[in-house]
From TrEMBL:
Domain of life: Bacteria
InterPro entries cross-referenced by the UniProt entry: TPM_dom
All copies of domain TPM, residue ranges: 22-143
Lineage of origin: Bacteria, Pseudomonadati, Pseudomonadota, Gammaproteobacteria, Nevskiales
Protein name: TPM domain-containing protein
Length: 171
């Protein structure tokens, strides 16, 4: 997709569309899912969704991955005792899901294919217009990966409690 097409998509993907798909009830379900999933592993999950980027950012070439990495920092997902934060970022205008993982999650040794499979779980739901199911699917998939590759170092207390808010971030 060229820059003008992308700019158009970002300009017309209104916050109204975001609010239509991510209603207060859907946001409550996302929060409850994060809370429940975090009881099964020591990782910390944040879920963020954004309708579109500013046109300045689009024309500057800011991509979904770079935006997700910026938000990973801005939302302080990195700021956990065991570096075990995971950000799930949805950029609706680009129809992209990015998963950014802190270095303490299995020492960075989780195969990228596993994170890609998590993102695909959400994409299937979103493509079908089932945004609640897609969000729940990606959170549960990420949770399964975190349970399989627990964050933390040997000899270190594996879970220090709920360090990050469970509520989703709507940008």
């Amino acid at each position: 997709m060229n820059t003008l097409q992308r700019a158009w998509r970002h300009a017309v993907t209104a916050r109204l569309s975001l609010r239509r798909h991510f209603t207060p009830a859907v946001l409550e379900t996302i929060e409850a899912t994060v809370r429940a999933c975090e009881t099964r592993h020591p990782g910390e999950i944040r879920f963020a969704v954004e309708a579109g980027l500013s046109l300045v950012d689009v024309f500057a070439g800011l991509g979904p991955r770079e935006r997700a990495e910026d938000l990973f920092s801005a939302l302080r997902v990195w700021d956990t005792e065991h570096n075990n934060g995971v950000l799930i970022y949805v950029l609706m205008a680009d129809r992209k899901i990015e998963i950014v993982v802190d270095r303490g999650v299995a020492g960075g040794h989780v195969p990228q294919s596993e994170w890609d499979a998590c993102a695909e779980a959400a994409s299937r739901g979103f493509r079908a217009g089932q945004f609640e199911q897609g969000a729940v699917a990606v959170i549960e998939s990420v949770s399964s990966v975190l349970a399989k590759y627990p964050p933390g170092s040997p000899g270190v207390r594996p879970d220090v409690g709920d360090e990050l808010p469970d509520s989703p971030v709507v940008l």
